[in-house]
Amino acid sequence: MAFDDAYDALTDHEDDARWAYGTGFSDPLAGVPGDLPDGVDRADLAAYCLMLGDDALILSHRLQQWVTRAPELEDELALANIGLDLLGQARLLLTRAGAAEGRGRDEDELAMHRPPAEFRNVRLAERADDDFAHLVARLCAFSVWRLELLQRLTGSADPMLAAIAAKGVKEVTYHRDYAAQWVVRLGDGTELSHRRMAAAVDALTPLLGELFQPHPVETRLAAAGIAVDPAGLRAAFDDVWAYVLATATLTAPGVAPAVSPAAVLPASSSPAGAPSAASGGRDGAHTPGLVEILDEMQALARSVPGGAW
Amino acid sequence: MTVTFDEAIARDQRIEPADEMPEGYRKTMIRQIAQHAHSEIIGMQPEGDWITRAPTLHRKAILLAKVQDEAGHGLYLYSAAETLGADRGDLTRRLIEGRQKYSSIFNYPTLSFADVGVIGWLVDGAAICNQVPLCRSSYGPYARAMIRICKEESFHQRQGYELLMTMMRGTPEQRAMVQDAVDRWWWPSLMMFGPPDAESPNTAQSMAWKIKRHTNDELRQRFVDMSVPQAAALGVTLPDPELRWNEARGHHDFGQPDWAELKRVITGGGPMNEERIRRRREADSDGAWVREAAAAHAAKGMS
Amino acid sequence: MTSHEWPLFEVFVRAKRGLNHVHVGSLRAADHEMALHHARDLYTRRNEGVSIWVVRSDAVVASDPAAKESFFEPSGDKVYRHPTHYTIPDSVPHI
C-alpha cells in the first residue's frame, strides 16, 4: 500500500468486494420544475412551506440534543439518521418557502434570523424530552401524523411540494417504524418502562389536538389542491396511534382540544395574516421550549455578521 | 499443512478469529481495538457539542453525519473486538470506570466553530496517518474495519479543511478564529502519534506481530510533512518556531511537543477528562432501564 | 447486569442485485426487528445495500480451525475439476 498520500493509499481497496461501499447518490428533486404553480398565493405557499419545514427543523433539533446521550450506541446511529432526514426535509421546505416568498431569503436566513413568533411549527415538535420514553412517544406520534400528511401531499398541485413529500414518505415510514417499535418495547417491557411510557404518552396528549386544527393558510391551499387539510388526517392518525398503544399495552387517552391552556408566548407578528383567535404553533404562539431551541440554534450564526461558513 | 500463527505472521497472512494465537497477541489486540473504539465514541463529544449550534443548516447536516460516523466507527471496532472473545458491555465498563484509555486528543475543549474545521483537518488527518497502515494489520477483522473507517474518515478530513478555507475567506474575526484553533490543536495533534520511539515500550512487540507497521516517530514525521503545505495553502501559521525544511533529510525539522503534558492528559489531568467520562457514564446509566426493558420485551416474545 | 445485555447479531448485506450477501460485521440488539433496524442504520448509511440478513451470532455454526487439514485439504489435489487441467489444441474453436 502506498503511504505517501493517505488518499492514494485508500484507493488500493477500491475493488475490495469484502466491503460494500456506497455509490450512486442521486438528487431526489432532479428534474422537478421549480416554477410556482399558476394562480397560487405566494405568501400562502411560503407560509405553508414554513409550517412543514419548521416542524422538521425543530424536531430535528430535539433529536440532535440526544447525540452522545442515547441509551445504546446503535441508537445513536438511528437517531442521527432520523435527525438528518428531518433536517434534509426542513432545508428543502425552507428553500421552497424562500423561493415562494420572493424576498431573497434562503434556508439559513429563514432558520437563523427569524424570531420565535415567526416560527410556524406545531408545539409538539418543540417540547423537550424528559427521557427516552418521551423521545420515542413524541417521535412516534409526530411520524404517524406526518406520514399521513406527506402521503397525501405527494398529490399536490405544486410539483416541488409533491416531490419533497415523496422523498419524505420513504424517510418518515422508517421513523414511524423505529419509534413505534420502541413504544411497544417500553410499554410492554418492564414495570418501570411501562410506567414511563404511559407518562410520556400522557404528557404529549395535550399537544396532539393542534396537529389536526386547520390554519386558514392550509384551508385555502387545500382548496387549491396544493396543501393537505390536517383535519382530514385525524381518523387515520387515531387508528394507527390506538393500534401502537394497544400493542404496547397502553390505553389511548382522549385527544385534547386544539387550544391548550398551557403557557404560550404571544404571537406578535403574523405575516401570513393568521387570525389571533386560535393561537397555536401555526400562528407563532409557542412554548418556552422553542425559545430555548432558537437561543441555541441561532446564537453563533447571529454573532458573526457577514460570516462565511 | 496447517499454518501456525508465527508462519502466518511471517508470510503476511491475516490472523482470523478462530485461529490459534498467543494470549499476549489476543490481549494486545483487544486492548488496542477497545482503546480505538473508545476514542471514536468519546470523540463524538467535542464536535457533537456544536451540532445544535452550527451556523448554517448545511454545516449542521455535515457535522451530524460526521459525528454519526464516529458512533459507527466505534461500533465497527467493538464488533472486531468481540470476535476475540471480548464483550462490549465489559469494555464499556472499563471505559467509564477509567480502567481503559482513549485518545488524549479528546480531552481538549472545542472553544469555537473553527475547532470543528481544525479537528477535521489536523486531528482526523493525524488519525488517517495512524490508521491507513492499520488496514494491513495482521488481525483480519481489525484490518477490515480499518479499511471501512479510513474510507469514511477521508470525508471527515476534507470537510474540515473545506470549512477552514471558507472561514479564511470570511471576516477578519473568522480568520483569527481559525488561527487560534490551529494554535491550540497543533501540538495535541502531534501527540496523537504517541510518545517518541525511544520511550514507547510496546512498539517493538506490536511491530513484530505486524499489528503496527510504522513507528510513532515515522508517522509523526509523515504527518508534519503532509500538513505544512496544507497550512500554507490555507494561509495559517503552524505554531512551531523550529519548523523548517531540512534539505539533507528530505523532511521538515520540527519541535518536540510537551511530553509531560501528554502524560498528564493521558492519566486524567486534561481539561476535559472528567466531563468526557461523566457524559459517557450518564448515557450508559440513564439508558440502563431502556436496554433492560427491550431485553424484557424480547424475552416475552420468545416464551 | 450482563443478563440485560443485548445478544450479538451477525450482519450480511447485499450491495446490489446480482451479488451475494456478504458478512460486514456484527451489532447488538434486543430482538430481530431491532437488529434489522440497527443493521440498516449502521451498515448502509452510504447507500451500500439493497438487502440485509441478520442472524444471532450464537446460531452460527462454524467449522473447526483445528480440523482445517481434514476438512479442506483433501480437495486440494483434485486438479481434474478445473478446466485448465485438460490440454486442447489451440486450433480447436469454442472450447
TrEMBL record, chain A:
InterPro entries: Aromatic_CoA_ox/epox (IPR052703), Ferritin-like (IPR012347), Ferritin-like_SF (IPR009078), PaaA_PaaC (IPR007814), PaaC (IPR011882)
One of the GO BP terms on file: phenylacetate catabolic process
Gene3D superfamilies per record: 1.20.1260.10
Cellular compartments per GO CC: cytosol
Domain of life: Bacteria
Extent of Low complexity compositional bias: 266-280
Entry's transmembrane regions: none
Pfam families recorded: PaaA_PaaC (PF05138)
Annotated spans, Disordered: 266-288
PANTHER family xref list: 1,2-PHENYLACETYL-COA EPOXIDASE, SUBUNIT C, PHENYLACETIC ACID DEGRADATION PROTEIN PAA
Name this polypeptide is given: Ring-1,2-phenylacetyl-CoA epoxidase subunit PaaC
UniProtKB/TrEMBL annotation, chain B:
Gene3D superfamilies: 1.20.1260.10
GO molecular function: phenylacetyl-CoA 1,2-epoxidase activity
Entry-linked InterPro entries: Aromatic_CoA_ox/epox, Ferritin-like, Ferritin-like_SF, PaaA, PaaA_PaaC
Gene Ontology process terms (BP): phenylacetate catabolic process
GO cellular component entries: cytosol
One Pfam family of this chain: PaaA_PaaC
Protein's UniProt name: Ring-1,2-phenylacetyl-CoA epoxidase subunit PaaA
UniProtKB/TrEMBL annotation, chain C:
Highest taxon of source: Bacteria
Descriptive protein name: Ring-1,2-phenylacetyl-CoA epoxidase subunit PaaB
Species whose genome carries this gene: Actinoplanes xinjiangensis
InterPro entries for this protein: PaaB (IPR009359), PaaB_sf (IPR038693)
